Amino acid sequence: MIWFAATILLGAFLVFQVQPIISKCVLPWFGGTPAVWTTCMLFFQLLLFGGYLYAHVLRTYCNPFAQAAVHLLLLSAAAMTLPIEPSDAWKPTGSESPTLHLLWMLASHVGLPYFVLSSTGPLVQAWLSFHDNSERVYRLYALSNAGSLFALLSYPFLFEPVLSVSTQSSMWSLLFCLFALVQGYVAVSLFRITPDSFEATEPKAPETSPASTAATAPVSAATQAAWIALPALASVMLLVVTNHVCQDIAVVPFLWVLPLSLYLASFIVCFDSPQWYRPKPIAAVTLAALALIQGKTLLPGSIQLIAEACCYMVMLFGACLLCHGEVARLKPGTARLTQYYAMLSAGGALGGVIVAILCPLLLNNHAELPFFVALVTALTFLLFFACKTWRQAEYDWAAAARLKYGALLVMISPIITMAFVSNNRTIASQRNFFGVLKVREKPLGICLVHGSTLHGMQRHAPHQSQPTTYYGYESGVGHVIKELQQQHPSLRIGIVGLGCGVLTSYGRPTDSFDLIEINPAVIDIADRYFTFMKDCPSSMTRHLGDGRLVLERMTDAKFDLLVLDAFSSDAIPAHLLTRESMSLYKERLAEGGVLAIHTSNNHLELSPLVHNLSRDAQMDSRMFEGIGDNSIGTTHSTWMIIAQPGHTIFQAASLAKATTATDEELREAPLWTDQHHNLVSVLRLWQ
């Protein structure tokens, strides 16, 4: 049993370690957007289904000797594809489809090793059933999810802060080789199983034995449909709740770890032992959380966001427990173990396809959230009244049938409520790989919003040409532009992060702008609903793609002012704040050029990091805090101003209150590189 358990535990650990490692390798090439994680999750869910299906086919159609031979060949082939880190040749140009390019790159570099790892759980459990075909085999599935949970929680706090990306990739590759040896040893043991002993392990008890009946009885189509539908619903809820909590409630780094941890924990609880699953109290708590979500506006404003996030987590955990508890209750005998797991993984993959592919194609907003929340509400409502006792999973489905109209009412209510909330004063909405962008109307004007992050506002006439939000005349970048315009008759200005184009309101006929934006929907919305760029007399050149990759290709560009405005969200592109990127910015500045970095952020303290990067690049830096004025649409902002030592910009009277870094700040500040950076080092837990 030790070798079987070790194989499953190590395989599960590697499955969930490779996901953040490979995602972090490619995250910089796609602007650091959260959609990279969603696409990677879709890829891994699809490959997980492929691995489970492979295990089912191998177990069904091959004898133990053939199973071992085939899998040993596959293990060897997977080991030959290492290491997994992609080369620079895979960097996107900006013209390709991000989703397809990312999926093809993942398939090329990690596809075969992950495919082998994903088949480990059901395949090893099937091999163990040759020796022990009792239900005890299913407990290894709980062990598998425990290994996955440890990998998930340990990465951001144990491995990422200590090891560089390349070291992480190399370490994972070495551990995979160790895994191949351990599983290879288990596979070789199958060679000792003779045809006679193999026949003896098949469930062939006497016909009158209940064990024989349970093992060989046909599984109904409804049960098989539940094996797919229930995991699909849990997978959908995981993804939609993660998207909502991370983008619309509180954009806190690593908040995506908590929902996924709860999702995995539900597997551990439900598959470890049937006694842990008690649907009636679970349904009661889930319904209470759903009710609090709908009534969050009755709570004090200071705790609304925290309460809503907590309620969503409780609701998600309850929904996953109910889905996985029911599917565990419906598990077949070990003879159908691999078919069962293949259908479970098909459901998980189906959920990923729905959220990552179908919803972005069919919807221009996050309408899937209210729909699936309502569906979970109705199903939980029915399950609560159908369950007859508080301690066991015994049902009276006739009672549930009598309450079907009540369940329908419960389902409709949250859809109507959330529809009104989401559509209030929304002028337009667009959705693509990078998320949902909304144009909303406010009393002063219209604004561009991505999740909970404001990307600029334009006031109504006659003030439509005045800079607003973080870019007002009294902001750090506003003072820098005015000072440089007084010193130079013309300026070449580069801007990474277009927003709705507010900064172009500073343009003069003699100035020129290079506008770099990774999201094509941002450019479309800025043209269609805002007039900053239309009204600007300066010449403009637009560049579509990741800011750093575009700047790398602009080898002849020299900017008098380079503005980085990509960090107001907490899903920040960390690759834009590394030692290597700072060296690139320094190369792209003209003689006497200035670099301005917008570091306003609710949950990340980026200013010390930028101070340290500037010192490392032998440049001076100042932090300027701008005070907002709601009456003219400006907001509080933090701008970092960076230039060569002794630059005249630092003597400007308008920037007199800009501050330098203290010795203590520089001692404690991180210094990110392309190989070594993590958001924990700049995470601000208390505001």
What does the model show?
The chain crosses the membrane at residues 36-55, 62-82, 102-128, 140-159, 171-191, 225-245, 251-270, 282-299, 305-328, 340-363, 369-390, 402-421. One of its GO terms (biological process) is polyamine biosynthetic process. By secondary structure, this protein is of the alpha/beta class. It folds into 3 domains: 1-193, Growth Hormone, Chain: A, CATH 1.20.1250; 223-366; 467-682, Vaccinia Virus protein VP39 (Rossmann fold). The protein has 24 helices and 11 strands. It has helices at residues 2-26, 35-61, 64-80, 98-118, 120-128, 139-159, 165-189, 195-201, 210-216, 221-249, 257-272, 279-294, 301-329, 337-362, 368-386, 397-402, 404-423, 476-487, 520-529, 532-535, 547-553, 579-588, 607-616, 663-668; strands spanning 426-432, 435-441, 445-450, 453-459, 492-496, 512-517, 539-544, 559-564, 589-598, 620-626, 637-643. The strands form 2 sheets. The protein has a 7-stranded mixed β-sheet, sandwiched between helices. A 4-stranded antiparallel β-sheet has the order 1-2-3-4, covered by helices on one side. Helix 11 (257-272) runs parallel beside helix 13. The longest helix is centred in the middle third of the chain and has 29 residues, at 221-249. The chain is globular, with a radius of gyration of 28 Å.
